[in-house]
Amino acid sequence: MIHYHKLGDVPPKHHVTHKENGKMLMEQCMTRVAFKSTYSIIYYRTPPTDECKVRSMELPGFCPVVPIAEQLLHRRHLRTQDMQPTGDFLTGRRTLLMNADIQVGVCKIAQPAGKSWFTNGEGDECWFAYDCGGTLESVYGVQSFNKQDYILIPKGTPYRLHPDNDRGTFLVFESATSIDLPQQFRNESGQITMDAPYCHRDFHGPTELLSFDESRHGKPPYDWVVKFGNRLSVHEYEHFPWDVAGWDGVAYPVTFNILDYQPKTATIHLPPTSHITFAGRGFVICSFVPRKVDYYDKGEYKAIPCPYGHASVDCDEILYYVEGNFTSRKGIESQSISLHPMGVPHGPHPGTYATSVGAERTNELAVMCDTFKPLLLTKAADAIEDKDYHYTWVRRENTPMETSK
Ligand SMILES: [Fe+2]
């Protein structure tokens, strides 16, 4: 997704014999958009196509998932900090918001990864590591990740995710298509442009090939759980199916730390989409990182760093608050998700707008996602919703009036 990478042994040309210790390896082309887009070519010691059994599976809260029926047009506040850790990287997943283009969930891991590997067969995933580092094992190899890393996992990738100490909280985006860098940050050759908010050096791929280890991977059979069409199927192998001798290409998991994002600052307030980081069909993912704020100052006219009220009539907007002061919102805490839907306006809470004048920096850290189709809540989201949030803009008798610094 980012740049060419290679691990292990590959032959000098595509689609030619490639042997290891005299035995022919099995070539697999992992392609995107049929055979027209980015791809990687993987060389297996045993073919990945000989599963001996396939069965269906359900994971409540993750798949299958449906939205709840009754959804008023409300601003929402989901208190994911109230969710209890449970399960592993697969069984602990809970989908909270969904539309046809993207699903957004949280995974709070409470135990070591089980034997099952997982693949999203339908779209790319983006995990955000809220509070932990760890290791990602995939068919492309092993790579570490750090706290507050985004982890981009291309669709079709078999993987397991291991937070350090087997505990950790993640925000998880599942695209129905791709999650990639916005086109405007690539030049005509695909290189990241010099005015992009990141560079190639900020993205990190697998550093070593997988090495089968029975103490870590277990004894046969090996289960591969594939999500496709809001269903899970379990493919059972009698051999370890991700025994890879080498691969090369452009499609593979990468990590990117949110603090490596270079924010833009201007004399007056920039729209939230100036923080764009990744994009897919029907959505963008943005990073709000600590930065200097707006500095227009001419006599009585000064910049207002707090966001203006807005009605993004074509977008639903969610924010996942990570750390720092969330100056425009009251009652919001770290791990809160706010959803401000299209159709009704939103803006800073009373008492936060004028008092921001004169501020020089913000230390807020948050992940935003704008979607072009409405997001619907799932049952898991309904269970953690702060039902009073929509009315927290209402001025009560004791609400302080706006006063400028
Ligand atoms: Fe907004």
Description:
The protein has two helices and 30 strands. The protein is an all-beta fold. It has two domains: 5-64 and 82-257, Jelly Rolls (Sandwich), CATH 2.60.120.10; 263-391, Jelly Rolls. It has a seven-stranded antiparallel β-sheet with strand order 20-14-11-16-9-8-30. The longest helix has 4 residues, at 214-217. The protein is globular.
Provide a brief overview of the structure.
By secondary structure, the chain is mostly beta strands. It is built from 2 helices and 30 strands.
How many structural domains does the protein architecture include?
2
CATH superfamily of the largest domain: Jelly Rolls
Q: Please give the share of residues in helix.
A: under 10%
Query: Which small compounds were modeled alongside the protein?
Result: fe (ii) ion
Features:
405 residues, disordered C terminus, mainly beta, 6-stranded antiparallel sheet, Jelly Rolls, 2 helices, binds fe (ii) ion, 7-stranded antiparallel sheet, globular
Helix and strand topology:
Layout (H helix, E strand, L loop, with lengths): L4 E4 L10 E2 L2 E2 L1 E6 L7 E6 L8 E5 L18 E4 L13 E6 L3 E8 L7 E4 L4 E5 L4 E5 L2 E5 L3 E5 L5 E5 L4 E8 L38 H4 L4 E7 L2 E7 L6 E6 L4 E4 L18 E5 L2 E6 L2 E2 L4 E2 L2 E2 L13 E8 L12 E5 L20 E2 L2 E7 L4 E2 L1 H4 L23
Parallel strand pairs: 10-17
Antiparallel strand pairs: 1-19, 2-3, 4-5, 5-19, 6-18, 7-27, 8-9, 8-30, 9-16, 11-14, 11-16, 12-13, 12-15, 14-20, 17-18, 21-22, 22-29, 23-28, 24-25, 26-27, 26-29
The chain binds fe (ii) ion.
